[in-house]
């Protein structure tokens, strides 16, 4: 045992003594994801602790002080400046300390633990007509503790300012383990026996302020977004020694915040959103002072690269409502009366048109358009990280701020500075507050590139100071900009900052290297040159292949959202960072890096991190940078088990297309056998859960009868691909699909006997998958250019995406280009005169995750509404079965937990409505969840079948 290992073991043991029951994780499988946040940095911690109470935090801090080990507090881990990573013990508050302790409606305050996610607080306060003002774009996963650490702002900071303006009190633990409350009047001990310690701390702070009155008054608090450094001006006599506000923005470097009392604001009764187009961001910035005269709640800007990337990733319909232009402003006006707000919006639009800089402008009326537009802006950091042309960009100078009236001049100078260093930046941000976020194509893999970055950062700091601005406007200084504080502040102020930290943290153990005694900005960079990794998938969209693919994750953490989109079902079920898309991507990055994870593809830590990935592919669409964890998992499993015995379920479920074809010849006896004791034994031997019934196999006779009836009477306009699941378990879906397509003017020729290879892909048997896919491509790429319609969405997605990426041939790409889902065929190819049979007014819909991710803009919900279904109650999320995943014995509980998030609640309140689920796995999960209830999921083809007397009752 090494000395370091003994020391770590001793620390963990001491923590266990001081904080009994506290969960502490060590080892690369647990700590790997915590080496990163959303910044450019990688700092592996020695351990990660998950406190449940302030007393747990006290125990950790006392143990770490005894051992001289640093401590870093962490919320959602979305810091872009590197202030949520550290070399000692990381405290993850988001896992357990995430309770809303009290909402006082009358006083308009809330008391929350540090790990409460902003959206959770906003949902709770919305019931009372209240809101928390600051709203960062990461609101779906950032925590209140993190917002307090950075002094976060957000899209509506023009109205609501910074977090510091909304904090009433902070409950903290000092570096030596003393609990105290900081408020507008100073510091108060929680335990009266600590009064002497707290009094000495207060005395030291007051002495510091008295000695530095002049620089504090002249250098701090000059512009709305001056976040850099410590906010010592709140401790001035004229400001009442407001220690709560002074600690906001200290980035966990002075004390650990465990809870806070925050002030709430009333929810606006009326609002209007204007979208304004410009030739460039400078022209947009020129109009900001005029816009501010109308007292907007938000003035947000972005350039064309972000919009283009969003449309490429999620389809052209993902961004609607923007006027012509290459840069845009969103301007939101709010008030108590909608008519008055609308009048102000019209007046503002008229004024801006007269000023002559607009290329277009409009008031956005549609709620759906407004949601779409705000999502583009909120995903800006991720979308800008990996653009549509494949270029990568990085933070580092992503948070500078100036006074709004100086923004245009600053941007002119900034663009010249970029050009002088031959760098490109993607700009967006809070233009109404003068805060500009920009991601820049730094080269951090080479010495020359890092030197260019250092020179640029120094000159950028000088430029923003020249314009009276701040290095940081809401993200904090962190590891990215703390070294540059001496450009912005006098030596005396830098010394005052050091003295402030010294009072709180004399041993320098709280988030070291941030603000005070900073490391160089190019130390601990995560990015470096890595060898190319030999893989079976081609990863054609990533210049560095697999290494470049897993590097797509830049840590913005959208996969940690509890709602909105489908990603990430396993994280939503477990709440564990390692079960998020980000956590898995970080472990794969560690594997490629080869330092902490040293056994490459054989790594059990990476295998375990990927274990609960459902391969739903939702991340490939929902993740702003397009991480495709399903593909990465398939590649890893292929390499990990190459030449070795695999899990039993890889054979029993991975080879299902072959075994099910054989079962069809003796379907009745096979089904009877599987329903009995022998079937349960076979399931256990095959690694399959016995909690579910194996779906009944269809007979070959039923299949032949269906296919004969599906032959078109005349020329066929398309091919109906009869996939393995439809062939084996529900051939009547093929018959219904054939009748509906013919009725819609798209007669099809059924094509049987082919397979997409999906089950071999999802179990990582890629050599077999390639052979199966090659045969299918050879059969379909025969000079026929007719559309290939696939009733099973997962198979359609495999043909569309996995086949060309795994085979990499022109033939595979030609076939993929022809593939349509059943929904897509009816959307794109149906006769305009087609009228479906009468449909129910209300349906419950479970969209297959692969269809959601792969076929953008061709969603069943949209088609159902267009065909006349008035209300579509869509279960937004994965069904939980996810192909082989939910049938595997060790994954059954997670499968049900995922279903409980969205699907099961809708089934519980079905009230006679039909349930539509095109995916076989979705329908199977619904049948399982229904139990003895008379519920059967219908394929959309069955709902629309012209031969049915009632939906689903095919004659």
Give a description of the structure.
This protein has 955 residues and is an alpha/beta fold. Helix content is 42%, strand content 13%. Strand 26 (915-916), helix 43 (920-930) and strand 27 form a beta-alpha-beta unit. The chain is globular and about 95 Å long.
Task: Write a concise synopsis of the structure shown.
The protein is an alpha/beta fold and 955 residues long. It is 42% helix and 13% strand. The longest helix has 20 residues.
Topology (elements, then pairings):
Blueprint: H1 3-18, E1 23-25, H2 28-31, E2 47-50, H3 54-67, E3 71-74, E4 89-92, E5 100-104, E6 109-113, H4 118-126, E7 130-131, H5 144-150, H6 157-160, E8 167-173, E9 179-183, E10 186-189, H7 195-211, H8 213-219, H9 243-247, E11 256-263, E12 265-266, E13 270-278, H10 281-286, H11 288-292, E14 298-303, H12 304-314, E15 327-335, H13 338-355, E16 360-364, H14 367-378, H15 380-385, E17 400-401, H16 407-420, E18 425-430, E19 435-440, H17 447-466, H18 478-481, H19 485-488, H20 491-504, H21 545-550, H22 569-574, H23 581-593, H24 604-610, H25 619-622, H26 629-640, H27 648-652, H28 656-663, H29 667-675, H30 677-685, H31 700-709, E20 718-721, H32 724-729, H33 731-743, E21 748-751, H34 758-762, H35 766-780, E22 788-790, H36 793-807, H37 810-818, E23 819-821, H38 822-829, E24 842-845, H39 849-854, H40 860-866, E25 871-874, H41 892-899, H42 903-908, E26 915-916, H43 920-930, E27 937-938, H44 940-944
Parallel strand pairs: 2-4, 3-4, 20-21, 20-22, 22-23, 24-25, 24-26, 26-27
Antiparallel strand pairs: 1-2, 5-6, 6-11, 7-12, 8-9, 8-11, 9-10, 13-15, 13-16, 14-15, 14-18, 17-19, 18-19
Helix pairs in contact: 1-3, 7-20, 16-17, 23-24, 31-33, 35-36, 36-37
């Amino acid at each position: 045992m090494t000395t370091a290992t003994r020391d770590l073991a001793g620390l963990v043991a001491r923590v266990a003594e001081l904080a009994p029951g506290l969960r502490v994780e060590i080892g690369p499988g647990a700590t790997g994801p915590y080496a990163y946040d959303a910044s450019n940095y990688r700092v592996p911690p020695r351990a990660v602790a998950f406190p449940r109470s302030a007393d747990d935090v006290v125990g950790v801090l006392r143990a770490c002080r005894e051992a001289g080990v640093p401590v870093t507090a962490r919320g959602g881990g979305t810091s872009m400046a590197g202030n949520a990573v550290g070399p000692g013990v990381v405290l993850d508050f988001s896992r357990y300390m995430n309770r809303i302790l009290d909402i006082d409606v009358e006083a308009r305050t809330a008391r929350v633990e540090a790990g409460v996610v902003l959206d959770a607080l906003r949902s709770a306060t919305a019931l009372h007509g209240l809101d928390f003002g600051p709203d960062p774009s990461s609101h779906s996963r950032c925590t209140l503790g993190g917002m307090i650490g950075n002094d976060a702002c957000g899209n509506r900071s023009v109205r609501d300012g910074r977090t510091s303006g909304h904090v009433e009190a902070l409950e903290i633990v000092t570096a030596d383990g003393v609990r105290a409350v900081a408020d507008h009047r100073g510091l108060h001990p929680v335990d009266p026996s600590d009064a002497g310690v707290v009094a000495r701390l207060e005395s030291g702070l007051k002495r510091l302020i008295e000695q530095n009155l002049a620089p504090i008054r002249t250098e701090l608090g000059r512009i709305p977004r001056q976040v850099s450094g410590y906010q010592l001006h709140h401790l001035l006599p004229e400001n009442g020694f407001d220690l709560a506000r002074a600690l906001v923005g200290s980035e966990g470097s002075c004390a650990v915040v465990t809870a806070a009392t925050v002030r709430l604001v009333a929810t606006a009764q009326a609002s209007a959103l204007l979208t304004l187009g410009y030739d460039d961001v400078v022209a947009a910035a020129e109009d900001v002072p005029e816009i501010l005269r109308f007292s907007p709640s938000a003035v947000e800007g972005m350039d064309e690269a972000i919009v283009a990337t969003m449309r490429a990733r999620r389809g052209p319909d993902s961004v609607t409502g923007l006027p012509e232009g290459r840069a845009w402003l969103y301007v939101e006006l709010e008030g108590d009366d909608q008519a008055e707000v609308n009048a102000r919006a019209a007046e503002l639009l008229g004024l801006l048109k007269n000023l002559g800089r607009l290329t277009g402008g409009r008031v956005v009326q549609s709620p759906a358009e407004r949601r779409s537009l705000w999502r583009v802006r909120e995903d800006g950091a991720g979308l800008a990280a990996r653009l549509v042309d494949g270029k990568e960009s990085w933070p580092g100078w992503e948070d500078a701020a100036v006074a709004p009236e100086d923004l245009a001049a600053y941007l002119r100078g900034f663009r010249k500075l970029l050009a002088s260093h031959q760098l490109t930046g993607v700009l967006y941000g809070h233009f109404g507050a003068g805060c500009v976020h920009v991601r820049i194509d730094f080269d951090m893999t080479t010495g020359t590139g890092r030197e260019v970055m250092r020179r640029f950062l120094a000159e950028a700091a000088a430029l923003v100071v020249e314009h009276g601005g701040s290095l940081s406007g809401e993200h904090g200084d962190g590891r990215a900009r703390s070294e540059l504080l001496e450009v912005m502040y006098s030596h005396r102020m830098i010394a005052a900052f050091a003295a402030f930290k010294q009072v709180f943290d004399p041993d320098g153990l709280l988030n070291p290297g941030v603000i005070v005694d900073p490391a160089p900005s190019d130390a601990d960079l995560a990015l470096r040159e890595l060898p190319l990794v030999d893989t079976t998938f081609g990863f054609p969209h990533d210049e560095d292949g697999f290494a470049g693919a897993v590097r797509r994750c830049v840590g913005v953490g959208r996969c940690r959202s509890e709602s909105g989109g489908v990603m990430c079902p396993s994280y939503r079920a477990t709440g564990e960072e390692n079960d998020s898309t980000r956590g898995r991507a970080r472990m794969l990055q560690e594997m490629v890096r080869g330092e902490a994870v040293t056994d490459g593809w054989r790594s059990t830590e990476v295998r375990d991190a990927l274990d609960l990935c459902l391969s739903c592919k939702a991340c490939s669409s929902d993740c702003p940078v397009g991480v495709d964890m399903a593909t990465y998992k398939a590649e890893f499993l292929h390499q990990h088990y190459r030449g070795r015995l695999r899990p039993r379920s890889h054979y029993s479920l991975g080879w299902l297309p072959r075994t099910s074809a054989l079962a069809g010849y003796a379907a009745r006896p096979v089904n009877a056998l599987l329903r009995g004791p022998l079937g349960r034994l076979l399931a256990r031997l095959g690694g399959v859960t016995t909690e579910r019934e194996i779906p009944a196999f269809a007979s070959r006779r039923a299949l032949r009868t269906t296919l004969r009836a599906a032959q078109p009477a005349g020329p066929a306009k398309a091919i109906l691909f009869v996939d393995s699941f439809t062939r084996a378990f529900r051939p009547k879906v093929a018959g219904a699909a054939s009748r509906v397509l013919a009725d819609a003017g798209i007669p099809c020729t059924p094509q049987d006997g082919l397979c997409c290879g999906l089950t071999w892909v999802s179990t990582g048997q890629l050599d077999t998958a390639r052979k199966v896919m090659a045969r299918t491509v050879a059969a379909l790429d025969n000079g026929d250019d007719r559309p290939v319609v696939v009733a099973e969405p997962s198979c359609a997605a495999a043909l569309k995406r996995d086949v060309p990426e795994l085979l990499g041939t022109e033939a595979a790409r030609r076939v993929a280009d022809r593939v349509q889902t059943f929904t897509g065929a009816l959307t794109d190819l149906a006769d305009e005169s087609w009228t479906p049979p009468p449909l129910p007014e209300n349906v419950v819909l479970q969209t297959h995750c692969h269809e959601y991710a792969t076929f953008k803009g061709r969603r069943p919900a949209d088609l159902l509404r267009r065909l006349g279904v008035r209300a579509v109650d869509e279960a937004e999320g994965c069904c939980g079965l996810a192909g082989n995943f939910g049938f595997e014995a060790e994954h059954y509980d997670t499968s049900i937990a995922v279903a409980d998030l969205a699907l099961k609640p809708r089934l519980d309140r079905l009230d006679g409505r039909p349930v539509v689920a095109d995916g076989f796995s979705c329908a199977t999960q619904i049948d399982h969840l229904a139990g003895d209830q008379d519920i059967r999921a219908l394929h959309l083809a069955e709902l629309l079948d012209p031969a049915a007397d009632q939906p689903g009752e095919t004659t």
